[in-house]
Each structure stands twice: as structure tokens, then as C-alpha cells.
Prior knowledge:
The complex is a heterotrimer.
Chain A: E1 4-13, E2 16-26, E3 31-35, H1 42-50, E4 57-62, E5 65-66, E6 77-80, H2 92-102, H3 107-120, H4 136-148, E7 154-158, H5 166-183, E8 186-191, H6 194-200, E9 203-208, E10 211-216, H7 218-223, H8 228-233, E11 240-246, E12 252-255, E13 258-261, E14 273-278, E15 283-286, E16 294-304, E17 307-314, E18 319-325, E19 336-341, E20 347-349
Parallel strand pairs in A: 3-8, 3-9, 6-7, 7-8
Antiparallel strand pairs in A: 1-2, 1-4, 4-5, 9-10, 11-12, 11-14, 12-13, 14-20, 15-19, 16-17, 16-19, 17-18
Chain B: E1 6-17, E2 26-37, E3 41-45, H1 52-60, E4 67-72, E5 75-76, E6 87-90, H2 102-108, H3 117-130, H4 146-158, E7 164-168, H5 176-192, E8 197-201, H6 204-210, E9 213-218, E10 221-226, H7 228-233, H8 238-243, E11 250-259, E12 262-267, E13 273-276, H9 283-291, E14 294-299, E15 305-320, E16 325-331, E17 334-340, E18 351-355, E19 362-365, E20 371-374
Helix pairs in contact in B: 2-4
Chain C: H1 6-33, H2 38-42, H3 55-62, E1 64-67, E2 70-73, H4 76-107, H5 113-125, H6 129-142, H7 148-173, H8 176-184, H9 189-218, H10 221-226, H11 234-237, E3 242-243, E4 246-247, H12 249-280
Amino acid sequence: xxxxxxxxxxxKFKTDVVLDEVSFEAEEGETLVIFGxxxxxxxxxxxVIAGVYEPEEGKVVLQGHDMxxxxxxxxxxxxxxxxxxLFPHFSARENIAxxxxxxxxxxxxxxxxxxxxxKLLKIEHVLEHFPRALSNGQKQRTALARALVAAPKxxxxxxxxxxxxxxxxxxxxxELPRLLRRFGSTVLYVTQDYREAMAxxxxxxxxxxxxxxxxxxPESIYLRPSSIEVAKLFGEPAINILxxxxxDEANRVSVNQNQFILPKGFHxxxxxxxxxxxxxxSIRLFREKRAGTISLEVITITPLNERSVVLLRSQxxxxxxxxxPAEEKTAKIGDPFWGMVVPEDLLLFEIESGQRCLPKQN
Amino acid sequence: xxVPEIQLSLNSVDKTYYGxxxxxxxxxxxxxxxxxxxxxxxxxxxxxxxxxxxTLRMIAGFEDVTGGTIQLSNRDIHQLxxxxxxxxxxxEGYSLYPPLTVRDNIAFALKAERISRSExxxxxxxxxxxxxxxxxxxxxxxxxxAGQQQRASLARALVRKADxxLLDEPMGQLEPQLRxxxxxxxxxxxxxxxxxxxxxxxDQTEANAxxxxxxxxxxxxxQQFESPTQLKHRPANIYVxxxxxxxxxxxxxxxxKPIGKGFQFQLEEAGEILDYQNVDFPKSLRDQLIKHxxxxxxxxxxxxxxxxxALKAQVISNQWLGDQSxxxxxxxxxxxxxxxxxxxxxxxDENVPFHLEASDIHFFNAENGNAIAHGLEI
Amino acid sequence: MNQLSKSxxxxxxxxxxxxxxxxxxxxxxxxxxxxxxxxxxxxxPPSIFxxxxxxxxxxxxxxxxxxxxxxxxxxxxxxLWNSVFLSSSAVLLSLVLGVPAAYAFARYRFRLGEDIAFTxxxxxxxxxxxxxxxxxxxxxxxxxxxxxTGLIWVYQLISLPLILWIVRGYFEDISPDIESAYRLAGHxxxxxxxxxxxxxxxxxxxxAGLLSFxxxxxxxxxxxxxxxxxxxxxxxxxxxxxxxxGIQYGQIAAGIVLSVTPTxxxxxxxxxxxxxxxxxGAVKG
Lengths: 362, 378, 285
């Protein structure tokens, strides 16, 4: 039985429907990421689960108990906020100790537990400082320590890395999973950064416009997105979307005068107009012409850490963004390349609904 | 030879903030000299407190220059009030005029230019399309999101005709997807219109994507001022080497042991040995390495070649991000991060063999952190 | 740009000096007067040099005034006590009622919330005379004339709106996330209010309380009309010095010094709260 269940939660602010029948569940010890663009309702959802907001409809079930009428302080939930929300008039130590004092632990026990988690998060040297004397990175770790110290069954992390320098954000992306595994709590993590989502999640609930667009493992969402909307949210640069026509044999799709080979199974879409999605990394570039490739010219090149992003244009005016390992090639503006896409890497979407077309197995 | 015209010049600029006591004085910017060409996009990059924002504010005129001079288009500007410098600035915080709509805020910047109403409207519209804020043009600053406010602020700065454009963390409030798209557009726009730009950021990905040259700052001092490629391939010191690039460069402090034709490097702490005794080190590099008995080795994530080799590491995490994998493993008492451009099957706690090519090593002086050689070239 | 030139500094100093002189001179003069006899005060030309005497203070404290026309009993010390008691009680009551109310207005949106808050504030705009006549009649009817209870109740018109509006701004400035964080740490709503909300709003509460105390202390009209001699505060009590045999300037001066001293001391002590308190709330970001 799932340890955390969100069942058709609907939340309105005046007439604005911020959450629309949101449902998903998480197993014990799972890290579930709630991912979506800003304004999608992620923070509101987290607060409904925490008990800070009351939903108009639906219920939250934690450890098998319906929490609808339970006050936040009785839900056994630890939460870290985006803006840290540290108590400004308490030292870092007192901030972290706060959940333990509520449990009525002895002073020595509290001291021990606070020190232990501070060491884990490398902030034991600033425990006596007040929030105003802490750097953003230290504040973030203090907030995290406070959320975790009492080892609550459910941990809610509201975009905790948002207000932290890029360098530290990357470091935490590597450290957090190990840290969270130590505590064994069920974690709900909110973020707008798809890399963070993919790095941390066992499963991702993609929230768009107050609704769950897809709820699956990172791999499934990235490779088999349920819609164009979801496909665009994952990957940098964003996925190339081209409008094309599937031929009658359903083995090719043409975009302007260029053709891409379709994998098997799309007979249902024979002859129709579709949107095809090509992820930048799935465009294979060669210096010489090969079977099935299109002729392309380099328009711009931009570095993106370990990869390079190149904007290419075909003679017919088709523009594509591709990426390749930075160390692999040195390309210049104007260089000619021959590009192709492996059929299995092509994604096909319906025009009207934006839903992905699923290949059939017969 | 084509010598680009210098547009902005900082000469030995110093900034000291005085407190109540003598000891409380903080030297935020130390002896900074930069020459920026017309039409160039320069990024001031560093973590919080490195002096980049103080520098920007001095160029804008919101802070006094404690020492040194600043010239823009060949005239001294460091003693002029901000309004007289012909500089446009986009601020990080809330800087839109509350009683004006977004449209009027942007148009306000054009008032001084004496262009016709229709021309002004057209420019505002073009800018709004470019930054994707058309829907909020008629809204007031208090009713739009932080990301929209930031774009409006950017629009207001860019729409003006100025000698210099200063952008303070121009995309800090924007969500990742939007940031990605706007970065490309912003760069194209600035290049197309030959706008000399100085931007401040703590995000090296952003600096790399936007800037022609990056000035890396730490603790008030300029570390290196070169193109992104140069910074990546030939970092001047350990600080620059580890700051540029994500995942960051892996560093190992080691003792130099000349052996055979080449060297062995014994890693401090765990005592692991990196064996390059059969590698041909050029004489100049040999001499340098023998001179420094302790050095720091820097290896970028792509240089950690997993799968085979004499070295072994234990996997702590294997994160697949769609177009690449970041694998963190424990080796020689530290965490080493490797990058692979495909999905890897490594499991937690698995012991993985790996190797490091000598041509990928960045050698740094262990005492002062300065670079000795990159690959086998000094 | 940040350093003032010498002449600018001299100019600034002179200006400040003049301003201080303008405001402080009356108080200084009255202070001097309180140590002089009536003859010394009325002497022409007035002089700063004189033999100080304590008879004015004596008269006030002992309650007996000796004039040419005879002896009078003055209830000044009683009046002083009334002022202290009335102002303190009124402010205390306003705090007990106003602080939780300010929190409610800050945190919860309820129907007519803004209207109610504004109505309460409007009490400060209205001239006291507006309500005075009806009040005297009502107070007679319900037996609250000349009672401490009645006066403290009426003083709420002065102190409650101030506390409500200033403290509300303070509560609004506390991020609700901080309170949520304390709740989620396992503490009840009440504990959160006492340990987080109130301490963080303390500068505002102190400032509002202090300001209310000063306004309540200075009030003249309510006490004049709704109370008689034994319940009157110093503001009204000072009238007693205008006697049939002439105005007792010396005693008035001494009376003023005594009545100004408590609030002056309180304000001097808490002045940093006043400035910090009043401006912190207003400026956002």
C-alpha cells in the first residue's frame, strides 16, 4: 500500500482553479518529483499535502490515514521552503532543534541529533549564527537540516535549490539523493529544473496548468512523453517540433522536401498530417553524405557545458537544433554536415490534441 | 591588422566600502583593469561577494570609484552622475515604475530620444515580441510575476540607444526553459545591433552561452579575462578551472615522481598512483614538473574514461539527464565526477575501472594554484 | 559625492542648531520657570540667572498651595497618578484586543474585512467633539460617568486604531512561510503565535504601544467632559492653577515638567523602537 496518496485534489483561489483533480501516490522511501513550469500549481500542491492549505475537494492520505482534518503539526511532515523560511530570531541551532523540541525530547538528545545532522550537511561551524549572518548556501542547508532532523515519514522539499548559486546547486544535486536515502523518508520534491527532476526522482509527476500530464519514471517521460507539452519541458535545448505528412505506406514522413524514416507501427496515421519531435541529441551528424541523410549548414554554435549546441539549416529552409559532445567535433559557422535521425528516436504527435501517437505492435 | 575600437575601459579600478571602524573596511574590487571593444559582450562571472556587482554599479555610476578611472567612448565617466553617462542598465531587483504599465515603462526609456510616437510604439512592440511579454504590456508591475518583471526591465534597458548596456543577472528569475530560449535570442539581438554589453552572472553556463569574453572574478580580483573556449581549455588557475564547466573539473593534489621516460603522480591522501612512465613529456614540461615536487592535477569530467583502465572507483550515483549521464564515484578518498553521452548501466556501489589520459591533464602549481600546463603543452 | 564639503557641514550644523533651538526652547524655559517664584517669573526684563527654589515642587507634592489670597488644596499628584493609570490601562487593553485583531486582519481574508479595518481607523480622523455630547448623555444613563472604566473604554478610540493599523503592517511583513514552518515543526497555532508571530512583530508592537501611550496621555477633551476632579488626568488637572488670585505660573511650570517627564523618559528609552518600528513595516523588499 502506498505510503502517500493524493486523491483528486482540487484547489481554487476565488475563481481560479489552481489544482484540478490531481491524483498520484508514492511508495515508502520513494523520491517523487513534482515537476512543471511556473504557475502550474506545484507549490500549492505541496502546501495542501502539508496541511497549510485546505483543498476544496479531494483528500490526502499519509501512512494510511486520511489527513483532511488533521492540523499540519500532527501530520509528521518535514518541509523545506524555497525561501528557506528560517526563524530570524533563532540561531541556526535553534532552528534545526525546533522539530525536536516539539517532540519533547531531552536537551542532550536534541543536542546530539542537531550536531549529527549539522555534520552531515557540513554546517556544524555555523550553528551559533543567526540566519542574517549565513550565506544562501548555508541557509539552504539549515532549512534542509530542520526538515530532516526529526526523521519524519514524509519530507516535502519546495524547490530548495532555487535561490542558491549555480555551483552549489549542482553539488547538491549529487549529494541530495545519498542524503535522503539515509533517512528513508518518502520525499516529495518540487522543481522547475528538468535535470534536477531526472537526477533525483524515482518517479516524476508532471504538473501543467493544475493537472497531471504524466506520472512515470524519468526514463519513460523523456523517451515516451505523453504529449508535445511534456516533451518540450524536458531536454535542453527544447525538442525540435516539425509539421510533416505521413505517407500512405506509413514508413516515411516528409517535412517540406525532406524525408525522415518512420519506425514500424504507425499505420493508423497513414496519410495524415502530424507533428514530429526530434530531440537535439538524436540528430546524427556526419561530415560526408550517407544513405538517408539531409544536407545541412551550420548557422550558429553555442557551448552548453559538456555538449555543443548547433543550429543547422537545410537548403529548403528547414531549421534544426542539434547537440553533440563538445570534445567530439570542432565546427565553424558555415560548415556543411549530413544529418539523419534513427527511426526509433522519432516521436509522432497528433495535431489536435498534442498527444503522442503510440506505435501499434501488429 | 584589424584592431577593434575600445569602447569601455576600466583602469586599476578599486572599490573599498568603509565601515564605522578602520578595520571594518572591505576591499570589494582590487585593481581591476579591463578593455572592452565596441560591440563586444562581456560577462563578469563569479560567486556571491566576488565584486562583480560592485564593478557593474561603479560603471553605471551608482557607486563611487575609490581608485582608478573608467572611460566610455573615450571620455572619463567615473565622476559623472549616472544620467550623464549614456549607459542603459537592467537591474536584478524590482525596478519598474509602479504607476506605469509595462508598455509605458518601456516607452519611457525612449522619451529622451525624440522619435515619433509610431516609431516608439513599433520599437516597444518589437522588444515585447522578442522577450515574449506581449500579453502583459498593458498590465501594472504589481500584477505580473517576477519573471515577467525581469523581462520588462530588460526590455526597458535594451530599447534605448546607449553607448553601453549593463545587465545585472538578466535571467535570474526566469525558469530554465525560458532562460534557454531567451539566451539565444538575446545574444543574436545584441550582436545584430552591435550593442556593447557587460553582464553580471553567477551562472557559468549562462556566461559561456552569451559572452564573447568572460572576466572571472574572485574576492575582488580578476582571475582571467578571455573567451569561453580559452577559459575552458587553458584556465589560468585552479579557481577558474573548477569554476568553469558543469560538472566541475576534478582536482587531485599529487606528488611528482620522475620515472622512466615520464612520471608517476602519487595522489596525496589515499596514495593511489597515476602511471605515465611511458608517456613522452616535452622537455619544458618535464623541467617544470621536476621543479615543483607537489602539483595539482585537473581533469574535466569527460576525461574520466569509465569502462577500462588500471584505476578503480566505487559508484555513488549514476544520473541520466536525457542527453548525458553524470556518474559520481569514490576514488582516492574523494568524489570524482565523470560524464558520458549515453545511458550507462553502472549500479550503486559497483566498482568501475577507469583511466585518465596524460593529454587531458591540466597541471597546476600546488602553492599558488596557477596553471603550469594544459595537456602536454605549457 | 558622499563627502560633504566643510562649508556644507557648517551649514548643516547651523541649520540643525536652529531647529533644535526652535523646538527645545519652550521646554527649556518652562524647566527654568519651574524653579522660580512667581515674582521672579514676572520680572522684567527676564533673566536666566536667579536663585532656584523648590517651593513649586513642594506645593505640588504636598498638595498645598500658599498664595496671597489664602491656602489651596491641589490634587496634582492625584492627577498624575490618574494619567499613569488611565493611559497604561487603556494601552494595555488595546494591546490585548488589538494585537490578535491585527493578526486576523493581516492573515485572513474575510468579508468586509477591509471595511471594518478602515472604520476602526476612521475613529482617529473624527474630531472627539463629534462623539462627546452623545457620550456624556449615554454615560449618565449607564452610570459610567466619572468612572475609570468609562474613561478607559473611551480611550480605546485613541489607542486601538493605532495599534491595529501599525501592528497589522508588521504581521503582514512576516512571511507566512515562517509561521507554516513552525507549525510543520510540530507546534500548535497558539504556540506559533506566541513564539514566532509576536516576537517578530515586537518592534511594531512596542512602537504602536508607545505612540498610543503618548496620545492617551495627551488627551484632554474626553477626560474634561466625562470625568470630574478625582478621576482627572494631568492634562485637565493643570487647569487648577488658573486660580481666582491669578495664574500660578511657577506651579504650572512645575506641573508641566512633572507631567512631561514620564512620557519623555519613556520615549527617550524606546526611541530606537519608534524609528525602527515605524519604518521597517512600510518599506518592502
